[in-house]
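Quick one before lunch.
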Amino acid sequence: MPLEKQGTCLCGATTLRILIDEPQVSACHCSMCRKWTGGPLLCVHSDHAPTFEGRAPSVYDSSEWAQRGFCGQCGTHLYYRLTDKTSYAIPAGLFDGDEAWDFNLQIFVEQKPAWYCFANQTTELTGEQAFEQLG
Ligand SMILES: [Zn+2]
Ligand SMILES: [Zn+2]
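Model of the zinc ion complex:
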């Protein structure tokens, strides 16, 4: 059974609802995510499109294959999506309530700076491996 989760941006203008198949969190260490969020992007993956209530997200085309959505009023990051299929990464901090997320995957580990590391035991993939295995 997919889980329906809800989250809001910092200013409350936008509410996001999305179905999550697996309550799992992954971290992306790539330099773009770190610039976008200020640190590694901790996110929940979904193959379902979210619905939005309130203010429509602002959208930034961050590469030829992906877009990043954010609240145009408070700047909260709302999603990263692949444009050629329904594939979303939602920042885990967006969701209201305490889900027992399972942090089980780190990607772009070759771009992780040396000055931090997570103690969680997770699968670790390079960017190349992530593209191969996750599409
Ligand atoms: Zn906002
Ligand atoms: Zn990334």
